[in-house]
Amino acid sequence: MRTIYLRKEYDNNIRKILIDMAYLVTHKKIRLPKTYYEDSLYLLFHPDKNSNQVEKYFLTKDKIISEDANHFFFKFPFKPEQVESASD
Questions:
Q1: Rounded to whole angstroms, what are the CA distances from 36 to 18, 52, 54, 66, 82?
Q2: Nearest to 20 by CA among 10, 29, 9
Q3: What is the pTM of this model?
Q4: Phi, psi angles (nearest 5°) of residue 70
Q5: Are the beta carbons of 32 and 59 closer than 8 angstroms?
Q6: Which residues, other chains included, contact 41 with Cβ-Cβ below 8 Å and sequence gap of 6+?
Q7: The predicted structure's pLDDT at residue 86
Q8: CA-CA distance, 16 to 4, in Å (whole number)?
Q9: How far is residue 57's CA from residue 19's CA, in Å, rounded to a whole number?
């Protein structure tokens, strides 16, 4: 299982937040602690398998599908191979 990170750009830097991969694989949802959520968090993904084009998928409040006391849950609308890994 490879790691996938959410990213947040600020002041010419990129902050990365590790996605809970065990939860993602089991439930096909992103589980994010509420304390880690902020505007402009995104995943990098390839819209087509054969494309080198990379797009940003922003985790916005309207994409929250549920929540509990400590986490927000987001739909993961990609195949794992579409999402850019943590290589950069």
A1: 10, 29, 24, 16, 24
A2: 29
A3: 0.84
A4: -120, -10
A5: yes
A6: 6, 7, 8, 17, 32, 58, 59
A7: 59
A8: 9
A9: 14
- Which tens digit of pLDDT belongs to each residue from 38-80? 989 999 988 877 778 889 999 999 999 999 999 999 999 888 7
Instruction: DSSP for 14-81, please give it.
Output: EEEEE--HHHHHHHSEEEEEGGG--TT-EEEE-SSTT----EEEE--GGGEEEE-SSEEEEE--S-GG
The pLDDT mean for the chain works out to 88
Residue 51: predicted pLDDT:
73
pLDDT band at 84 (very low <50, low <70, confident <90, very high): confident
- Residue with the two structure tokens 């739909």: 75
User: 39: which 2 tokens?
Assistant: 């505007």
